[in-house]
Amino acid sequence: MTTVCAACGAAAAGTARFCEGCGAPLAGAPAAPAVPPTRPGSDDPLSDAPISAPTRRPSAALPDPLPAMTRRPCAECGGEVGPDLYCLECGTKAPSERDHFRESPAPWVAGVCDRGITHARNEDAMALLAGARPGSRAVLVVLDGVSNSIDSDVASLAGAHAAREVLRMPLPAGLGTEESRAAAAARVFDTTVQAANTAIVATTDPDSPNPASATFAVAVVEGDRVHVANIGDSRAYWLPDDGQGVQLSTDDSMAQAQIAAGVPREIAETSPQAHAITKWLGRDSPDLSPHLVTRELSVAGWVLVCSDGLWNYASEPADLTAQIAAAGTTDPAELALALVGFANDCGGQDNITVALARVDPTGSAATTPGAPAASGLGTVGQNADQTEQSGGGPTDPEIDVPDRSDVHELSDLPDHAQEGPSDG
Amino acid sequence: MAEFTAAVYQNEFLPDGGTDVNAIVTVTCTGAGTAGQAGSGDAGEIIIVDTSGSMGPATMEAAKDAAKAALAEIVDGTWFAVIAGADRAMLAYPPVTSGPGMVQMDARVRTQAMAAIDRFVGSGGTAISTWLDLAGQLFSSVPSISQRHVLLLTDGENRERPGRLDEAINRATGYFQADCRGAGTDWQVAEIRRIAQALLGSVDIIPRPDQMRAEFQAIMRKSMSRGVADAHLRVWTPQGAQILFVRQVSPTVEDLTARRTPVNPLTGDYPTGAWSDESRDYHVAVRVAAKAVGQEQLAARIQLTLGDDIVTQGLVKATWSSNSELTTRIDQQVAHYTGQTELAAAIQEGLAAKAAGDEATATTKLGRAVALAAATGNAEATTKLRKVVDVENEVEGTVRLKRAVDKADEMALDTASTKTTRIRKDTA
Known about the structure:
Chain A is an alpha+beta fold. Helix content of chain A is about 20%, strand content about 20%. In chain A, α1 packs antiparallel against α2 (about 180-200).
């Protein structure tokens, strides 16, 4: 028996666990579990529940992004990075995977999580999922570990992975009415927050005087809608190509409290206490109820979820739109790098996370109402073989995502004026 | 199979704007085995004995005895030859006029070679270039030899037109190694040191004939224990960096900077010769472009290579920091060997000044040497210095030149000047 490497296409012996050609794990190996490789149990809230553990992943579940196959080229000079993790040309130390990582689960969804310049470690975390078909379904999770608490880099990543697990399946449709649908989605986001919080608390030393804590911001794109949930001051924005962008999330911060009380945004966000957050995840969390918002996406644009490492330098949606225009790309991976580069060029005073989904309902990839929803959700490009062999066929219609033909306009905010591209 | 390890000692922290990175890399070889037995080629040994007319009867008898003792140390199967050196070099053993000029050692040829040595008679002058050239020709007559070592004994100054010896040294460099010994006090330390340094060997004085046998035995035993034929120190530095110097600093100081063979634009090889079970320390100094505070980068990869195989690697790093507690610290190893290198230079320059009659410079330099030897704990240098100068204040290095100095003591100080001492590593 032979199998074919999903990553590079090379043939491999049936018993091989890794590709001879590129070193990628082979899904077809007999010893491999039926589900794609998963992380250790602490990331998975169901890991210690053997009775109900699925033996194969439902087709509607989004697959994990593929791990990077090779070391990225040197960020400084583009040279090859050696096995000792220093550039073979200029000697620059390659950042550790925790200090700088990228995810790109589908060509239309990508993110970069970067240490920035002045912080000693990266306490931001990011976890992404996406269906292969552009605009089908994407999950963007960003957590910002609070830097004066202990081990928040470990905690934030654990929290992000736990949140991603919960959101792997499509949001429920409820009983069909809008109220019911909203309530069902809200329950899922509550579960997501709880799972993230549980994971964070689980990584915290019970005796820690300064328990790990983190913000939480999630955007779930499903067809022509985006659902956002947040706690703390990590943000989600909707930034259409033409027209005014909008911040979807609501900060739980002193600055936001001041803005609510009438202080102008520029003054509030630059005041000494601006970054003090009023809600967070962690053992000493005061309140675990997220802000929720849903928005219809009818034009082409970007869903952006980011930590304050980015929006410190471009808080207003128009400023972000200007930076996106300056980058001049519709590739989310390129844009995420460009925005992280922008924040680092501005000083990189904090960890920077940028997660993006490219939404283009007018393009060829627009959602067709009533189409078999699962068809676009099974696999990610080069991952196709792997999923096939692990049991969950891409067209296996086990679970339907909500039928989008009956979506009503829920949140068409009044500021959604069509004013043409903003200059920047 | 020989195993190599590398350890790096450095203070990687540079202040804002700092560019110069210094590191001591200790390379250790274990399991070297025996010369010529590793399967990578045969070993070849050539013993060159000065048979010029200046060799007095006692010295000549001692040299014969010592050469025979050295023959006894050569492991069976090793290719060898014996050269009698005078105005020209004569192949004393094996007695051939064509074909391979060396034979493989066994009990029978060992006896024959000893008999050949017994027939040595001193006559004629000293033309060392011809000795080296003949050794090179003999080695090249046996293609299977990959590890080539010469033991050279002379008692007098080279009598050739200037330049001839240097040309012969250049021809031999990189082809064979040579440990050189001078008998008595009529030879030139600087001249013989030039040979030994180029040919990756040691130089020393054998003041009295009765010390010769033990010295030859030790040299040959050491050579036979070098089971790793030919290793190179490979140094990679980043684009735009500059290598300030590459020095072996232990067991002796040898500047290798000029002996770089480029591998690619960022990488160069420096010769280290054959290895036994031993540790050698290298001092590498690299100048890199300063980066922002908080940045870290690799300043050098230091590797030991056998042919194309990299057998061990050490990383020299640079991290820019604004913490002056970190950046002002000088690594103990770097400081120690910087002092030892200066000690070697001070001794050689002081003795050269003394020989030239410049007593003021000699007093200053040798005084500095006394202070450095004391500060770096080099007891051997201290002992040898005290035979040449009267020390008034060891710490400050105030000395007076001794009026009557044994020439042998002065030469012993000169030959030993490059020998260094180690310090404990665990405190570094």
